[in-house]
Design a protein that fits this description.
The protein is mainly α. The protein has 31 helices and 8 strands. The strands form 2 sheets. It has a 6-stranded mixed beta sheet with strand order 1-6-3-4-2-5, with helices on both faces. The longest helix is centred in the first third of the chain and has 30 residues. It is elongated, with a radius of gyration of 36 Å.
Length: 739
């Protein structure tokens, strides 16, 4: 019996192992796209397997679908991914966020911390003012009131700080993200992308370079003064050794390995910084070469360089002049203090996303950095191949983000950074058909997903048109010029009411049709800018305006239909105040309707809007902007119908017609649309008229047709307000197609 039990157990074990092996093998075959026993039938039901060629075609299509699903998308190609390593990486990703308090001497010793600025879109922006603040702090901490008053051969005076009073200097936190490091080429070490701290690290490198040159220049002078002594004496040897020590901090050398700078900016901004850190310019030190330049020579040098190079040169020469007034002993004490007592809190997160969250949660990374600036770096530097095109796109983005020139009659080229950010948010929401939150900085990742999908779609189109993969793929530069910049300009025109800049408006055949389109756009602008529950309508409206500006045939043909639908649903969102999820669902349905005219949109919500208008309290503080926008739209409709001039005044508000109500009447009619009159908003308004006759005179001076009708009323009683309320609700139903 025992033997039989063992035999049964062995058989079961063999069966289980065989089943597991078969499952793994089948899974591997399916992953490779190879026909397996679990594949679906390849013969269709019509031929029932008799037509072998048909069955093979079906199988081939199935394999192509599998392989297509396994192929990486275009944006995952090495050209648009992370830089590839040419050797094994010695800096492996961190398993968790690490924070260390390190002295500057540790950071600048060897190659354990090499800094680059690949993801930092800000250039070097510190001026002499910020450099002076840092240098003053360091000199005060290291020397006290000693600076410039202690000769080389003197003993420390009473003005110097006692050693017991010298404390550590905390230079705040820097945030680094592990990068790629080629140990075969560079030896042991690690590279970090500086996410926060670029300005401080570059300035510290410039200060150390100025100290290095000061010691080298002094050693050279001693050698010239005492030529008979070998190498200028022990003092000159010590000074030269100190200079070389600082040099290895700035350019840590290794035998049989390539040189590397302590910190490197982008290539365009790194020209003078590299020369300064290497410290060898035509057999002269950078201090000698740059501080002795004439104004003309300096202008010639900087004429072809970026503004960051100019600031680097200014701060370096300024620091060198400040240090030149210190004695040797003071400079040595300052050097020792910087290396030993200056500490930084080094934060190394696992990913750039965590790094961004850390920086934004502390409200750091400069006072002028926004998520759109990070997206700018992604578009210009990560998804553009040619370096010249990178900087060209970067500069064009700067022009687009610059403050717009108000009152200029020229073509719109600058819209401001806020408009560019809003355009990214709206266009990404439309493309991805998803709600994108604009807080915490996480919108950058949704914007990058939008960018990737756009690149993939455009390159697929180009490949299909050419019949082969495009030789020049669609890149970040193309995305900016063809998608982002036009969307930003259209959005700026819409928000600024620059209707004459829209070509599709000027091309309208009749004046009444043009005035109607302007009235609709003004209404939606007032709603999306002033009513929180209607702001999502800007997503679909921007999509429509872009297509109209591109003279898209389908959009031009269906302009009246689509614009009327967007206008009606915008009013519905403002009145009914649906949830954000419901608003986005509606907006995406409208986008689908623009893409495909065969699609239909449920209109049950609009049918009940008439009742909601009758009961809505337009006079409440939160709803007066809705009332002003609606009355302005209705006034324009009546002016067009009567062939009168439509007022284009945008600064409007509403005024309560009747103010003296009985207790039972106030709750019912005081805040109704019938008790509100449209008036021009004035910064300094006179005392409101009290009597009805005074109000009649005031309303009669307004330009609005509906307001003038109020002035024609003989009296202002409850029945008059109710009658006007009913008339306006009926007019609204007719204008917005709610009947």
């Amino acid at each position: 019996v025992y033997a039989m039990m063992l035999a049964v157990e062995a058989a079961v074990a063999v069966a289980v192992a065989t089943a597991l092996f078969a499952a793994e093998l089948a899974s591997a075959f399916r992953f490779q796209g190879v026909v397996s026993s679990s594949r679906p039938r390849t013969s269709c039901q019509s031929c029932r397997g008799k037509n072998r060629r048909h069955a093979i075609d079906i199988e081939g299509k199935r394999r192509r679908v599998i392989l297509r699903n396994q192929m990486p998308p275009f944006f995952a190609s090495p050209a648009f991914g992370q830089p590839q390593q040419s050797g094994p990486a010695s800096a492996s990703p961190q398993s968790a966020t690490v924070t260390l308090r390190l002295p500057l001497g540790t950071l600048f010793d060897g190659r354990d911390y090499i800094f680059v600025t690949e993801s930092n879109v800000r250039g070097y922006e510190w001026t002499e003012r910020e450099t002076d603040i840092l240098l003053d702090d360091l000199m005060d901490a290291a020397l006290g009131n000693l600076g410039g008053q202690l000769d080389n051969d003197d003993e420390p005076s009473l003005l110097a700080k006692p050693a017991s009073m010298i404390t550590d200097y905390e230079l705040s936190q820097i945030v680094l993200v592990p990068g790629n490091w080629d140990s075969n080429l560079l030896g042991l070490g690690a590279c970090y992308d500086v996410y926060d701290g670029q300005q401080r690290l570059v300035t510290l490198n410039l200060l150390l370079a100025a100290l290095r040159d000061s010691f080298k220049c002094e050693a050279d002078e001693l050698c010239e003064l005492y030529p008979n002594e070998m190498a200028g004496g022990k003092r000159a040897v010590a000074l030269l050794a100190t200079s070389n020590e600082i040099g290895t901090m700035l350019v840590p050398t290794k035998v049989r390995k390539e040189d590397v700078l302590r910190i490197s900016l982008r290539k365009r901004d790194n020209i003078l910084l590299e020369n300064i850190l290497r410290g060898d310019i035509e057999s002269e030190t950078p201090t000698q070469a740059y501080t002795t330049m004439s104004s003309r020579e300096r202008s010639v040098l900087l004429s072809a360089l970026s503004s960051a190079n100019a600031r680097i040169l200014d701060n370096f020469t300024h620091s060198a002049r400040r240090l030149s007034i210190l004695s040797t002993r003071e400079r040595l004490r300052l050097l020792d203090y910087i290396v030993e007592r200056v500490h930084l809190l080094v934060c190394i997160p696992e990913t750039s996303r965590i790094a961004r969250n850390i920086v934004m949660s502390q409200n750091r990374k400069g006072l002028d950095n926004e998520p759109v600036d990070d997206f700018k770096g992604v578009v210009c530097f990560r998804y553009t191949l040619d370096e010249d095109e990178m900087y060209k796109t970067f500069d064009e983005w700067d022009v687009l983000s610059a403050a717009p020139s108000l009152g200029s009659s020229e073509e719109v080229t600058s819209v401001g950074r806020d408009i560019v950010s809003a355009a990214c948010l709206l266009r990404a929401s439309a493309a991805l058909r998803t709600k994108i939150r604009s807080r915490g900085g996480d919108e950058v990742y949704d914007w990058e997903r939008w960018l990737r999908e756009e690149l993939w779609r455009q390159n697929q189109r180009m490949s299909e048109e050419a019949g082969e993969p495009a030789s020049q793929p669609w890149q970040g530069k193309d995305f900016f010029s063809a998608s982002l910049a036009p969307a930003s300009i259209v959005l700026y025109k819409f928000r600024s009411s620059l209707w004459e800049e829209f070509s599709f408006i000027s091309s309208q055949a009749t004046k009444s049709r043009k005035d109607t389109i302007l009235a609709q756009l003004n209404f939606m602008r007032d709603m999306t800018s002033g009513v929180a529950s209607a702001k999502e309508a800007e997503i679909v409206l921007l999509e429509l305006l872009i297509r109209l500006e591109n003279d898209e045939e389908n959009a031009m043909r269906r302009l009246d239909e689509i614009l009327s639908l967007i206008e009606a649903w915008t009013l519905w969102m403002a009145i009914e105040k649906p949830s954000p999820m419901q608003r986005h669902k509606l907006v995406f349905a409208l986008l689908d309707l623009i893409d495909d005219e065969a699609k239909t949109l449920q209109t049950e919500g609009l049918q009940g809007l008439g009742c909601s208008l009758s009961e809505f309290e337009f006079g409440s503080a939160a709803s007066r902007k809705i009332a002003a926008a609606l009355l302005r739209r209705l006034d324009a409709h009546e002016s067009i119908r009567q062939k009168k001039k439509v007022s284009q005044k945008s600064e409007v508000t509403v005024d309560f017609i009747k103010t003296d109500w009985a207790d039972g009447e106030r709750d019912e009619q005081a805040n109704s649309i019938g008790n509100l009159a449209l008036i021009a908003a004035k910064k300094t308004r006179k005392k409101k008229p009290a009597s009805w006759s005074e109000k009649q005179q005031s309303y009669g001076r307004e330009v609005w047709l509906l307001t003038k009708r109020v002035a024609e009323m003989d009296e202002c009683g409850v029945a008059d307000i109710k009658g006007r309320h009913a008339d306006i609700c009926d007019l609204t139903s007719n204008v917005f197609g709610l009947n």
